[in-house]
């Protein structure tokens, strides 16, 4: 279980996250939605240790993450994918996954270098990587250089790398961004297949169709606050949310106008939310 | 069929060295020794530059620490005469320790910043050797260095050192290759590719880099001990920034992250200036031109594939490894 407990993040004068509290339960898929700038990515980056937390606590199964260094957060059982793919391009696909299984203790690493650890351990790690790759249909690409794969496959490799260590919490930061219809459908099946009783999944997405079809619960954010939380049906029915996000033309125009008023340039691409550019 | 391609390829080298040792006169043998020494240095530096992707421009500092270990612990300087094998271990370990001590503060830096700090470290060690008159004789250096004996075998001629260096090359090659194949190598490659993503995967990047630094420095220190035993004279002049640069060039020219690249790079970098000796006036000019041409023709090193042994075996039709 991943818990945000009165979490606040301040960037200078801007409160990117403002006293957010919610829990992500294991066994289900929790989507976090909201317009760009609502704080979704900030939330993920704080949980994963990329950003510090201004105040509040973030916990995985009772372990406080906010003061841990990034690699310890991973050891605590939190894994993530990135909005922009961050694979180890020059390494093979299977090596990419092996990185997530490198023994955490440095003494073990040194012993391994001198061949003092059982060979079976390394082979077992390798087998585990291959098993995950096979599950995601990436088996044939195991020895290919990660950077040479197609975009959609790279996204899947990132997913594989995130799950191979058997995390307790999986953060998916826009996994469907840039995928075509068929790839998104495939991704959806993979995500559904990954659902496990002891895995808490957080999905940040702009693809409303995907969200509505696979999320068990949805958290709506706007301007750093949680606006609403509920099942897909509940959220769909929530007028307030519709106004803020779900594409009532009027609502979007209002936000746009407000943004222009703050001398920001706003661009809306199809299938995405609002993209903010500093002038 | 599973073969151990590195071991196989390296098994050929002692045979070649044995043959060469029988036929070559002293002068070419000395050059061959230097090639082997720089190849070993290149292999050591490769751990940090090729695998971890951290540019170290002060590698010569570790070499110097090793060299002065032999010069001080086996000479008339303080009338200490320790056996060669022991000093080899001490010198390499001291260098490894220096690597850790240097690494702790500086490994937070990356790229150019790290390069500059390591360059500074190299200069600090040289200047230290130059000014610790009471210990190192300053710029005059230390002569009267003992002849090395290794388990009853006297190391004095280039011929003797050829065997020692070949043995060391094989050991270091296997060591470096083990690093590449082990979990440490995987971690180092991840650090090189994307440090933040590596941390997100649970790699303690600071410690992993520290281990790489220590291993790399250890090899450099070992080479230094052999260098001092070979020359039987050390002075700070042998450990200038130019030396660090040559070692970096060895692996850049040969191919980064590739054990065979280091061997090839060392061969070219030592051989070219020797071949140009006849044109003394234009030697450096031609040397520089040759290097520029190599880099232009093969910007990623002559053996550009990062996984040398595996690649070579595939080319030779060998088995999977």
Automatic annotation (TrEMBL), chain A:
GO terms assigned for molecular function: ATP binding
Record keywords: ATP-binding, Nucleotide-binding, Transport
Coiled coil, from the record: none
Superkingdom as given in the UniProt entry: Bacteria
Domain ABC transporter: 2-248
Name of the molecule in the record: Branched-chain amino acid transport system ATP-binding protein
Pfam families, A to Z: ABC_tran, BCA_ABC_TP_C
Source organism of the structure: Ancylobacter vacuolatus
PANTHER family: CONSERVED COMPONENT OF ABC TRANSPORTER FOR NATURAL AMINO ACIDS-RELATED
SUPFAM superfamilies hit by this protein: P-loop containing nucleoside triphosphate hydrolases
Family from the record: Belongs to the ABC transporter superfamily.
Classification via PROSITE patterns: ABC_TRANSPORTER_1, ABC_TRANSPORTER_2
InterPro entries: AAA+_ATPase, ABC_AA/LPS_Transport, ABC_transporter-like_ATP-bd, ABC_transporter-like_CS, BCA_ABC_TP_C, P-loop_NTPase
